[in-house]
Design goal:
The protein has 411 residues and is an alpha/beta fold. The chain folds into 2 domains: 173 residues, 3-Layer(aba) Sandwich (Carbamate kinase); 147 residues, VC0802-like (2-Layer Sandwich). 33% of the residues lie in helices and 26% in strands. The chain contains 12 helices and 18 strands. It has an 8-stranded mixed sheet, with helices on both faces. A 6-stranded antiparallel sheet has the order 14-15-13-16-18-17. It has a two-stranded antiparallel ribbon with strand order 4-5. The longest helix is centred in the N-terminal third of the chain and has 16 residues. The radius of gyration is 23 Å and the shape is globular. It binds adenosine-5'-diphosphate (ADP), aspartic acid and magnesium ion (MG). Adenosine-5'-diphosphate (ADP) binds next to loops.
Protein backbone atom coordinates (compact mmCIF):
# COMPACT_ATOMS: atom_id res chain seq x y z
CA UNK A 1 0.00 0.00 0.00
CA UNK A 2 1.24 3.54 -0.62
CA UNK A 3 2.55 5.32 2.44
CA UNK A 4 1.81 8.83 3.63
CA UNK A 5 3.54 10.77 6.40
CA UNK A 6 1.33 13.18 8.36
CA UNK A 7 2.94 15.40 10.99
CA UNK A 8 0.93 17.28 13.61
CA UNK A 9 2.58 20.16 15.47
CA UNK A 10 1.98 21.23 19.06
CA UNK A 11 -1.11 23.37 18.55
CA UNK A 12 -2.68 20.66 16.40
CA UNK A 13 -2.51 18.19 19.31
CA UNK A 14 -2.92 20.70 22.15
CA UNK A 15 -6.06 19.08 23.59
CA UNK A 16 -7.78 15.70 23.45
CA UNK A 17 -10.37 17.30 21.20
CA UNK A 18 -7.72 18.42 18.73
CA UNK A 19 -6.08 15.02 18.82
CA UNK A 20 -9.47 13.58 17.89
CA UNK A 21 -9.73 16.04 15.02
CA UNK A 22 -6.25 15.13 13.79
CA UNK A 23 -7.06 11.43 14.13
CA UNK A 24 -10.11 11.90 11.90
CA UNK A 25 -7.87 13.29 9.17
CA UNK A 26 -5.63 10.27 9.55
CA UNK A 27 -8.65 8.00 9.39
CA UNK A 28 -9.71 9.57 6.10
CA UNK A 29 -6.30 8.87 4.54
CA UNK A 30 -6.48 5.28 5.77
CA UNK A 31 -9.88 5.02 4.10
CA UNK A 32 -8.25 6.44 0.95
CA UNK A 33 -5.99 3.40 0.96
CA UNK A 34 -2.81 4.70 2.57
CA UNK A 35 -0.68 3.18 5.27
CA UNK A 36 0.03 6.22 7.40
CA UNK A 37 2.99 7.19 9.53
CA UNK A 38 1.87 9.91 11.92
CA UNK A 39 4.55 12.04 13.55
CA UNK A 40 3.41 13.96 16.61
CA UNK A 41 4.81 16.88 18.57
CA UNK A 42 4.29 17.44 22.26
CA UNK A 43 1.09 19.27 23.21
CA UNK A 44 1.50 23.05 22.76
CA UNK A 45 3.58 24.59 25.53
CA UNK A 46 4.70 21.22 26.91
CA UNK A 47 8.26 21.33 25.60
CA UNK A 48 8.74 24.86 26.95
CA UNK A 49 7.53 23.70 30.34
CA UNK A 50 9.89 20.72 30.33
CA UNK A 51 12.85 22.87 29.25
CA UNK A 52 11.97 25.30 32.06
CA UNK A 53 12.03 22.51 34.63
CA UNK A 54 15.47 21.39 33.45
CA UNK A 55 16.89 24.91 33.58
CA UNK A 56 15.43 25.51 37.01
CA UNK A 57 16.96 22.29 38.31
CA UNK A 58 20.43 22.70 36.85
CA UNK A 59 22.18 25.74 35.39
CA UNK A 60 24.86 23.96 33.37
CA UNK A 61 22.76 20.87 32.80
CA UNK A 62 23.79 17.45 31.51
CA UNK A 63 22.37 17.44 27.96
CA UNK A 64 21.67 13.70 28.17
CA UNK A 65 19.26 14.28 31.03
CA UNK A 66 17.79 17.32 29.27
CA UNK A 67 16.94 14.97 26.40
CA UNK A 68 15.47 12.39 28.77
CA UNK A 69 13.14 15.05 30.12
CA UNK A 70 12.16 17.06 27.03
CA UNK A 71 11.55 14.00 24.82
CA UNK A 72 8.75 12.88 27.14
CA UNK A 73 6.18 15.33 25.76
CA UNK A 74 6.07 13.60 22.39
CA UNK A 75 5.69 10.17 23.99
CA UNK A 76 2.48 11.26 25.71
CA UNK A 77 0.94 12.56 22.47
CA UNK A 78 1.97 9.47 20.52
CA UNK A 79 0.20 7.19 22.99
CA UNK A 80 -2.91 9.37 23.08
CA UNK A 81 -3.05 9.55 19.28
CA UNK A 82 -2.76 5.76 18.98
CA UNK A 83 -5.51 5.29 21.58
CA UNK A 84 -7.75 7.77 19.77
CA UNK A 85 -7.26 5.94 16.46
CA UNK A 86 -8.01 2.62 18.12
CA UNK A 87 -11.24 4.08 19.47
CA UNK A 88 -12.11 4.85 15.84
CA UNK A 89 -11.38 1.21 14.92
CA UNK A 90 -8.23 2.16 13.02
CA UNK A 91 -5.47 -0.38 13.76
CA UNK A 92 -2.69 1.78 15.21
CA UNK A 93 0.15 1.67 17.71
CA UNK A 94 2.68 4.15 19.04
CA UNK A 95 6.47 4.11 18.78
CA UNK A 96 9.03 6.03 20.76
CA UNK A 97 12.08 7.03 18.73
CA UNK A 98 14.27 4.31 20.23
CA UNK A 99 11.70 1.62 19.44
CA UNK A 100 11.66 2.36 15.72
CA UNK A 101 14.71 2.74 15.97
CA UNK A 102 15.58 6.24 14.82
CA UNK A 103 19.35 6.34 15.26
CA UNK A 104 21.17 9.64 15.73
CA UNK A 105 24.65 10.84 16.57
CA UNK A 106 25.50 11.71 20.17
CA UNK A 107 25.05 15.50 19.87
CA UNK A 108 22.45 15.73 22.63
CA UNK A 109 19.78 18.45 22.28
CA UNK A 110 20.82 18.98 18.64
CA UNK A 111 21.28 15.43 17.36
CA UNK A 112 21.40 14.52 13.69
CA UNK A 113 19.56 11.55 12.29
CA UNK A 114 21.87 8.83 11.01
CA UNK A 115 19.49 6.01 10.16
CA UNK A 116 15.88 4.94 10.45
CA UNK A 117 15.19 1.22 10.77
CA UNK A 118 12.12 0.37 8.70
CA UNK A 119 11.81 -3.35 9.50
CA UNK A 120 9.83 -3.13 12.77
CA UNK A 121 7.19 -0.78 11.42
CA UNK A 122 6.96 -2.54 8.06
CA UNK A 123 6.44 -5.87 9.83
CA UNK A 124 3.47 -4.36 11.66
CA UNK A 125 2.06 -2.88 8.46
CA UNK A 126 2.34 -6.37 6.94
CA UNK A 127 0.30 -7.73 9.87
CA UNK A 128 -2.50 -5.27 9.19
CA UNK A 129 -1.59 -2.24 11.31
CA UNK A 130 -2.61 0.82 9.30
CA UNK A 131 -1.10 3.67 11.30
CA UNK A 132 2.27 3.91 13.02
CA UNK A 133 2.20 6.85 15.41
CA UNK A 134 5.77 7.97 16.03
CA UNK A 135 6.94 10.39 18.72
CA UNK A 136 8.67 13.22 16.86
CA UNK A 137 11.83 15.09 17.82
CA UNK A 138 13.64 12.11 19.37
CA UNK A 139 16.01 9.25 18.67
CA UNK A 140 18.65 7.06 20.22
CA UNK A 141 22.39 7.72 20.35
CA UNK A 142 25.15 5.18 19.62
CA UNK A 143 25.51 4.86 23.43
CA UNK A 144 21.84 3.92 23.71
CA UNK A 145 20.74 7.21 25.29
CA UNK A 146 17.65 9.18 24.23
CA UNK A 147 18.50 12.17 22.03
CA UNK A 148 16.46 15.10 20.71
CA UNK A 149 16.82 16.89 17.39
CA UNK A 150 16.68 20.55 18.47
CA UNK A 151 13.58 22.75 18.83
CA UNK A 152 11.11 22.22 16.03
CA UNK A 153 12.69 18.83 15.35
CA UNK A 154 9.46 16.94 14.70
CA UNK A 155 9.42 18.45 11.22
CA UNK A 156 12.75 16.75 10.59
CA UNK A 157 11.50 13.47 12.00
CA UNK A 158 8.59 13.64 9.56
CA UNK A 159 10.70 14.30 6.47
CA UNK A 160 13.24 11.65 7.47
CA UNK A 161 10.44 9.07 7.79
CA UNK A 162 9.01 10.09 4.43
CA UNK A 163 12.45 9.51 2.87
CA UNK A 164 13.09 6.22 4.68
CA UNK A 165 9.68 4.74 3.82
CA UNK A 166 9.46 6.19 0.32
CA UNK A 167 6.25 7.99 1.26
CA UNK A 168 4.16 9.50 -1.50
CA UNK A 169 4.10 12.81 0.42
CA UNK A 170 5.01 14.41 3.71
CA UNK A 171 2.20 16.63 5.01
CA UNK A 172 3.08 19.05 7.82
CA UNK A 173 -0.12 20.06 9.61
CA UNK A 174 0.25 23.24 11.64
CA UNK A 175 -1.61 26.30 12.91
CA UNK A 176 -1.26 28.32 9.69
CA UNK A 177 -2.53 27.18 6.30
CA UNK A 178 0.85 27.27 4.60
CA UNK A 179 4.10 29.15 4.18
CA UNK A 180 3.55 32.90 3.95
CA UNK A 181 5.61 35.78 2.56
CA UNK A 182 6.35 36.53 6.22
CA UNK A 183 5.06 35.45 9.60
CA UNK A 184 1.31 36.19 9.42
CA UNK A 185 1.45 37.10 13.11
CA UNK A 186 3.56 40.15 12.26
CA UNK A 187 1.50 41.54 9.40
CA UNK A 188 -1.99 40.82 8.17
CA UNK A 189 -0.72 41.61 4.67
CA UNK A 190 1.35 38.42 4.63
CA UNK A 191 0.31 36.32 1.64
CA UNK A 192 0.15 32.55 1.49
CA UNK A 193 2.40 31.06 -1.16
CA UNK A 194 1.10 28.14 -3.23
CA UNK A 195 4.67 27.02 -3.88
CA UNK A 196 8.08 27.92 -2.57
CA UNK A 197 11.47 26.71 -3.78
CA UNK A 198 13.56 24.51 -1.49
CA UNK A 199 16.43 27.02 -1.51
CA UNK A 200 14.15 29.87 -0.45
CA UNK A 201 12.47 27.82 2.26
CA UNK A 202 15.88 26.71 3.50
CA UNK A 203 17.05 30.32 3.84
CA UNK A 204 13.81 31.53 5.41
CA UNK A 205 13.88 28.69 7.95
CA UNK A 206 17.51 29.20 8.87
CA UNK A 207 16.94 32.95 9.19
CA UNK A 208 14.13 32.49 11.68
CA UNK A 209 10.86 31.44 9.98
CA UNK A 210 10.01 28.62 12.33
CA UNK A 211 7.19 27.17 10.24
CA UNK A 212 9.65 24.41 9.24
CA UNK A 213 12.86 23.34 10.97
CA UNK A 214 15.82 24.09 8.70
CA UNK A 215 17.10 20.55 8.74
CA UNK A 216 13.74 19.21 7.55
CA UNK A 217 13.99 21.34 4.41
CA UNK A 218 17.55 20.20 3.83
CA UNK A 219 16.49 16.56 4.05
CA UNK A 220 13.47 17.05 1.79
CA UNK A 221 15.69 18.70 -0.81
CA UNK A 222 18.31 15.96 -0.64
CA UNK A 223 15.89 13.01 -0.73
CA UNK A 224 13.34 14.61 -3.06
CA UNK A 225 10.51 14.35 -0.57
CA UNK A 226 7.26 15.95 -1.66
CA UNK A 227 6.76 18.35 1.25
CA UNK A 228 3.54 20.21 1.95
CA UNK A 229 2.61 22.61 4.78
CA UNK A 230 -1.08 22.94 5.58
CA UNK A 231 -3.60 23.78 8.27
CA UNK A 232 -4.91 21.23 10.73
CA UNK A 233 -7.86 23.52 11.47
CA UNK A 234 -9.31 23.87 7.99
CA UNK A 235 -10.65 21.49 5.42
CA UNK A 236 -8.01 20.93 2.81
CA UNK A 237 -8.28 19.72 -0.75
CA UNK A 238 -5.39 18.37 -2.83
CA UNK A 239 -4.16 21.85 -3.70
CA UNK A 240 -4.33 23.24 -0.16
CA UNK A 241 -1.36 24.60 1.71
CA UNK A 242 2.09 25.29 0.35
CA UNK A 243 4.18 22.87 -1.66
CA UNK A 244 7.92 23.12 -1.08
CA UNK A 245 9.41 22.17 -4.43
CA UNK A 246 12.19 22.58 -6.97
CA UNK A 247 12.75 26.00 -8.43
CA UNK A 248 11.91 24.63 -11.90
CA UNK A 249 8.40 23.74 -10.74
CA UNK A 250 7.50 27.36 -10.02
CA UNK A 251 6.18 29.26 -13.00
CA UNK A 252 6.43 32.85 -11.89
CA UNK A 253 7.80 34.31 -8.70
CA UNK A 254 8.70 37.64 -7.13
CA UNK A 255 12.32 38.72 -6.86
CA UNK A 256 11.88 38.62 -3.09
CA UNK A 257 9.96 35.58 -1.85
CA UNK A 258 9.75 36.47 1.79
CA UNK A 259 10.94 38.30 4.88
CA UNK A 260 12.22 36.47 7.95
CA UNK A 261 13.15 37.70 11.40
CA UNK A 262 15.06 36.36 14.31
CA UNK A 263 14.28 38.08 17.58
CA UNK A 264 16.86 36.84 20.06
CA UNK A 265 20.10 38.02 18.52
CA UNK A 266 23.06 39.72 20.15
CA UNK A 267 26.06 41.63 18.89
CA UNK A 268 29.54 41.57 20.39
CA UNK A 269 32.46 43.82 19.60
CA UNK A 270 36.05 43.24 20.60
CA UNK A 271 37.64 46.67 20.75
CA UNK A 272 41.18 47.27 19.61
CA UNK A 273 42.54 43.85 18.76
CA UNK A 274 45.88 43.48 16.95
CA UNK A 275 45.30 43.46 13.17
CA UNK A 276 47.63 40.58 12.30
CA UNK A 277 47.41 37.29 10.42
CA UNK A 278 45.66 34.69 12.54
CA UNK A 279 43.61 37.07 14.67
CA UNK A 280 40.26 35.89 13.27
CA UNK A 281 41.25 32.28 13.88
CA UNK A 282 42.31 33.17 17.43
CA UNK A 283 38.88 34.68 18.11
CA UNK A 284 36.48 32.42 16.25
CA UNK A 285 38.26 29.12 16.97
CA UNK A 286 37.61 29.32 20.73
CA UNK A 287 34.05 30.57 20.09
CA UNK A 288 33.35 27.53 17.91
CA UNK A 289 34.90 25.24 20.53
CA UNK A 290 32.57 26.78 23.11
CA UNK A 291 29.58 25.92 20.90
CA UNK A 292 28.80 29.54 19.98
CA UNK A 293 26.94 29.90 16.67
CA UNK A 294 28.51 33.02 15.22
CA UNK A 295 26.55 34.37 12.28
CA UNK A 296 27.53 37.80 10.95
CA UNK A 297 31.12 39.03 11.19
CA UNK A 298 32.51 42.49 10.51
CA UNK A 299 36.13 43.53 10.83
CA UNK A 300 36.44 47.28 10.96
CA UNK A 301 39.05 49.48 9.37
CA UNK A 302 42.47 49.22 10.95
CA UNK A 303 44.29 52.09 12.62
CA UNK A 304 47.81 51.87 14.05
CA UNK A 305 47.71 48.11 13.59
CA UNK A 306 44.60 47.75 15.81
CA UNK A 307 41.05 46.99 14.69
CA UNK A 308 37.56 46.31 16.09
CA UNK A 309 35.90 42.97 15.43
CA UNK A 310 32.10 42.68 15.57
CA UNK A 311 30.02 39.51 15.34
CA UNK A 312 26.46 38.38 16.01
CA UNK A 313 25.30 35.38 18.03
CA UNK A 314 22.13 34.08 19.72
CA UNK A 315 21.37 35.94 22.97
CA UNK A 316 21.36 32.70 24.94
CA UNK A 317 25.00 32.10 24.04
CA UNK A 318 26.35 35.41 25.44
CA UNK A 319 27.67 33.90 28.71
CA UNK A 320 29.54 31.17 26.84
CA UNK A 321 31.00 33.66 24.36
CA UNK A 322 32.10 36.06 27.09
CA UNK A 323 33.72 33.21 28.97
CA UNK A 324 35.58 32.03 25.85
CA UNK A 325 36.82 35.55 25.06
CA UNK A 326 37.97 36.19 28.62
CA UNK A 327 39.94 32.94 28.44
CA UNK A 328 41.71 33.94 25.19
CA UNK A 329 42.71 37.23 26.82
CA UNK A 330 44.02 35.42 29.86
CA UNK A 331 46.10 33.14 27.63
CA UNK A 332 47.46 36.23 25.88
CA UNK A 333 46.09 35.14 22.51
CA UNK A 334 43.66 38.01 21.88
CA UNK A 335 44.56 41.19 23.75
CA UNK A 336 41.41 43.21 23.18
CA UNK A 337 40.94 46.48 25.05
CA UNK A 338 37.28 45.88 25.83
CA UNK A 339 34.36 43.61 25.01
CA UNK A 340 31.05 45.36 24.31
CA UNK A 341 27.84 43.30 24.22
CA UNK A 342 24.55 44.51 22.73
CA UNK A 343 21.84 42.02 23.71
CA UNK A 344 18.99 44.04 22.26
CA UNK A 345 19.10 43.44 18.50
CA UNK A 346 17.09 41.47 15.96
CA UNK A 347 17.96 40.16 12.52
CA UNK A 348 15.73 40.90 9.54
CA UNK A 349 16.31 39.15 6.22
CA UNK A 350 14.85 39.28 2.75
CA UNK A 351 15.11 36.10 0.70
CA UNK A 352 14.52 35.29 -2.95
CA UNK A 353 16.18 33.33 -5.73
CA UNK A 354 15.29 36.22 -8.04
CA UNK A 355 18.14 38.17 -6.41
CA UNK A 356 20.62 36.09 -8.37
CA UNK A 357 19.65 37.94 -11.53
CA UNK A 358 18.27 41.18 -10.10
CA UNK A 359 20.49 44.05 -8.95
CA UNK A 360 19.32 46.72 -6.53
CA UNK A 361 17.49 44.67 -3.93
CA UNK A 362 19.94 45.67 -1.20
CA UNK A 363 19.67 49.35 -2.06
CA UNK A 364 15.87 49.13 -2.02
CA UNK A 365 15.96 47.41 1.35
CA UNK A 366 18.29 49.97 2.92
CA UNK A 367 16.23 52.85 1.55
CA UNK A 368 13.00 51.45 2.95
CA UNK A 369 14.58 51.09 6.40
CA UNK A 370 16.09 54.57 6.17
CA UNK A 371 12.67 56.05 5.41
CA UNK A 372 11.43 54.64 8.72
CA UNK A 373 14.49 55.92 10.56
CA UNK A 374 15.69 52.41 11.34
CA UNK A 375 19.43 52.24 11.84
CA UNK A 376 21.31 49.24 10.40
CA UNK A 377 24.05 47.90 12.65
CA UNK A 378 25.47 45.01 10.64
CA UNK A 379 24.80 43.72 7.11
CA UNK A 380 25.51 40.38 5.46
CA UNK A 381 24.53 39.08 2.08
CA UNK A 382 24.61 35.87 0.13
CA UNK A 383 23.46 35.01 -3.36
CA UNK A 384 19.78 34.85 -2.41
CA UNK A 385 19.46 36.79 0.85
CA UNK A 386 20.30 40.05 2.58
CA UNK A 387 20.30 40.24 6.38
CA UNK A 388 20.57 43.25 8.65
CA UNK A 389 20.90 43.63 12.39
CA UNK A 390 18.74 46.37 13.93
CA UNK A 391 17.46 47.42 17.35
CA UNK A 392 14.94 44.85 18.51
CA UNK A 393 12.25 47.44 19.22
CA UNK A 394 12.00 48.09 15.45
CA UNK A 395 11.68 44.43 14.49
CA UNK A 396 7.95 44.33 13.67
CA UNK A 397 8.11 47.71 11.95
CA UNK A 398 11.05 46.59 9.82
CA UNK A 399 9.28 43.40 8.72
CA UNK A 400 6.14 45.35 7.80
CA UNK A 401 8.15 48.04 6.03
CA UNK A 402 10.06 45.55 3.91
CA UNK A 403 6.94 43.55 3.16
CA UNK A 404 5.39 46.77 1.80
CA UNK A 405 8.53 47.94 0.01
CA UNK A 406 8.81 44.72 -2.00
CA UNK A 407 5.04 44.55 -2.51
CA UNK A 408 4.90 41.01 -1.22
CA UNK A 409 1.14 41.16 -0.74
CA UNK A 410 0.88 41.03 -4.55
CA UNK A 411 1.47 37.81 -6.44
P1 LIG B 1 4.03 23.63 14.96
O1 LIG B 1 3.79 23.61 16.43
O2 LIG B 1 2.87 23.14 14.16
O3 LIG B 1 5.32 22.97 14.57
P2 LIG B 1 5.31 26.22 14.76
O4 LIG B 1 4.86 27.17 15.80
O5 LIG B 1 6.60 25.53 14.96
O6 LIG B 1 4.12 25.16 14.55
O7 LIG B 1 5.33 26.94 13.32
C1 LIG B 1 4.19 27.61 12.85
C2 LIG B 1 4.34 29.10 13.10
O8 LIG B 1 5.41 29.61 12.30
C3 LIG B 1 3.17 29.94 12.68
O9 LIG B 1 2.19 30.01 13.68
C4 LIG B 1 3.78 31.29 12.38
O10 LIG B 1 3.60 32.21 13.43
C5 LIG B 1 5.27 31.00 12.26
N1 LIG B 1 5.86 31.51 11.01
C6 LIG B 1 7.00 32.24 10.92
N2 LIG B 1 7.27 32.57 9.67
C7 LIG B 1 6.28 32.05 8.90
C8 LIG B 1 6.00 32.06 7.50
N3 LIG B 1 6.81 32.67 6.62
N4 LIG B 1 4.89 31.42 7.06
C9 LIG B 1 4.08 30.80 7.93
N5 LIG B 1 4.29 30.75 9.25
C10 LIG B 1 5.37 31.37 9.76
N1 LIG C 1 8.10 19.67 20.76
C1 LIG C 1 9.37 20.06 20.19
C2 LIG C 1 9.54 21.56 20.21
O1 LIG C 1 8.68 22.29 20.63
C3 LIG C 1 9.56 19.52 18.81
C4 LIG C 1 8.53 19.98 17.79
O2 LIG C 1 7.40 20.29 18.14
O3 LIG C 1 8.85 20.00 16.61
O4 LIG C 1 10.57 22.05 19.81
MG1 LIG D 1 7.36 23.62 14.66
Amino acid sequence: MPTLVMKFGGTSVATLDRIRRAAKRVGREVANGYDVIVIVSAMAGKTNELVGWVEETSKFFDAREYDAVVSSGEQVTAGLMALTLQEMDVPARSWAGWQVPLKTDAAHAAARIEEIGTDNINAKFAEGMRVAVVAGFQGISPEGRITTLGRGGSDTTAVAFAAAFGAERCDIYTDVDGVYTTDPRITAKARKLDRIAFEEMLELASLGAKVLQTRSVELAMRYKVKLRVLSSFEDNDDSAGTLVCDEEDIMESNVVAGVAYSRDEAKMTLLSVADRPGIAAAIFGPLADAGVNVDMIVQNISEDGRTDMTFSLPVAQIPRAEQAMAATKERGEVNYADLVTDDDVAKISVVGIGMRSHAGVAAQMFKALRDEGINIKVITTSEIKISVLIDRKYMELAVQTLHDAFELEKA
